[in-house]
Amino acid sequence: MFDRLIAHRQTAAFALFLALFLAGASSASAQSSIEASVSEKTIFIDDQITLIITAKGIDGEIQLPDMSSDFSIISQSKSQSMTIINMQVEATATYQYILQPEKVGVLSIPPIRAKADDKTVTTKRIQVEVLEHQSRPQAKGPSQGDQDAAGPTPQTAGDETIFIETSADKKEVYLGEQLTMTFRLFSRHDLGSADYTAPTCTNFWKEDIENRRRYATLIKGKRYRVEEISTALFPTKTGELTIGSASLKCTLDTFFSPNFAFGRRGVERPRNLQTQPITINVKPLPDGAPPDFSGAVGQFSISASVEPSELEVGKSATLNVRIWGTGNVKTIQELPKPSIEHLDVYEPNIKESVSRKDSPIRGTKSFEFVLVPNQPGDYVIPAFAFSYFDPETSRYRTAKTRPIKLTVTGTAQVASPGETPSLTQRTDVQQTGIDIRFIKPKMTEFKDYRQDLHKRAITLILVLLPGLVAIGLCFKGALSEKLFGDRRLRTAKRDAYRLLSEAKTRMNPDEPKEFYSLLAKSLIDYIGARFGVPTPGISATTVGGIISSSGDGDKAGLLASECIEVCDFYRFSAQKSSIDEMKGVMAKVWQALSLLQHLNVGKEN
What we know:
Blueprint: H1 2-29, E1 33-38, E2 42-44, E3 49-56, E4 59-63, E5 71-85, E6 88-101, E7 105-109, E8 113-116, E9 119-122, E10 126-131, E11 155-158, E12 162-168, E13 172-174, E14 179-187, E15 190-197, E16 204-208, E17 214-219, E18 222-235, E19 239-243, E20 247-253, E21 268-274, E22 278-283, E23 298-307, E24 310-312, E25 317-327, E26 343-345, E27 349-355, E28 362-373, E29 377-381, E30 385-390, E31 395-400, E32 404-409, H2 453-505, H3 513-531, H4 543-548, H5 554-571, H6 579-597
Parallel strand pairs: 2-10, 13-22, 24-32
Antiparallel strand pairs: 1-3, 3-6, 4-8, 5-6, 7-10, 8-9, 11-12, 12-14, 14-18, 15-20, 16-18, 17-18, 19-22, 20-21, 23-25, 25-28, 26-28, 27-28, 29-32, 30-31
């Protein structure tokens, strides 16, 4: 009886609490509201703002107006909370949108509406002033055919959404002189996929510039993302030469673009773009070239040194002659070997290096001569001369070194008739008369080994046993490695997706290191599992060789190398990154992983 009374009281208390709860909820609903604000009301065209919407007591989702003519939505997020104060329930939803302005001027965010019971609540219109702020020169857009003073008219293809162009920095050059061809992609959308075909450059020596520029620019008040690919060209023939057409096959992802409509998925629109060829006039080099001119065109310097400058007879010294500067160092021919009495000079060891980071490209070519004196005394190594054509002044120039003094001490070496002292001579090696003496054992008695057959069987077992054990261990190791590799491969894809998802949450342009570290780790770990390679050995320079070994992985290897290189740049530098670039690199990592999954290498579950 007592228990039943307690149960009735608990039921009544719960009913009373429920009634008060519903009453509080109803009261909260009666106080429904929606507010909107922005982080800044005056920004530059390259900046971004945060739109914050706070909704209380709203039914369902808010209705975001169409802002595509003024803003692009870069990212969005939502958080919810619920509080109970004096038995009143208040549910709050907070929406955050990162917006990128699309033009200069006074832009507006229209009123935002939401439903609460039978009524509609709205926010006030918000105005944002966007100022023009360019850190780079204004780019030319489609149909802008202004003649460049230095180079021919850039050839463009596309429309106001996306277009490409190829240009050359010079329209007339000398034979062997460098000109720089630049391909630019201007886009207001993200690319779902891209297949770039470089122009054909017949009768040009080609060197790719490693530094690819990525930046944003304004064209007719609209913001474009730009990517540049530059190539150094050296004409090998005179007359009118043609730089072929550049083409780009791509798809446009409009999910986070100026045409994005809230609540709809982005679509991929295929585009095929192709520029027109460019004609370059190549002039022959003028007459009056020095006798030692071998065809080098550019600006060069030369130096010479000998180490050591003092030595003994029979010892060796190294003469290093170095030529460096801007131009194609591959055209520099071998220097003549100096002829000095009582000084043996051997054929040079030639080293060559080219820096392709920026244009114009720079290079160095060095010649290392080994010198071996056979008489003491003071020697003079004559000056070296190198002639080249300077296209800036249209004149031939000759660079020279100074003569170098070499002091030799010790006793002169006297050569036998018909013998020439050489670097390989050694005075501490004496001939014994016979190079190889045959050593035969002393056999004083013979033994019949057939009497110890049982011992020989045991010996045979003892000899074979280590080999059998080694084979067993190898088989066990191979089996363990296969099982471990299969297990590693099964989890590689899942781990890569997990790291990419985590990277998406760390997309902070002010602190990009963690974001790019996660991207690089997702790609490197997957490649290591896919190809059975230790991850410490995978880098931007080695990944191409690892992947292309599969036969059809050249494209995947090139894309993976590019992704890792960009990630390494931001991981190990203090450079900041933009949201657009972060999204672009992440999209390329996804594309690289997709290509790797379809390579015919091993198994994948």
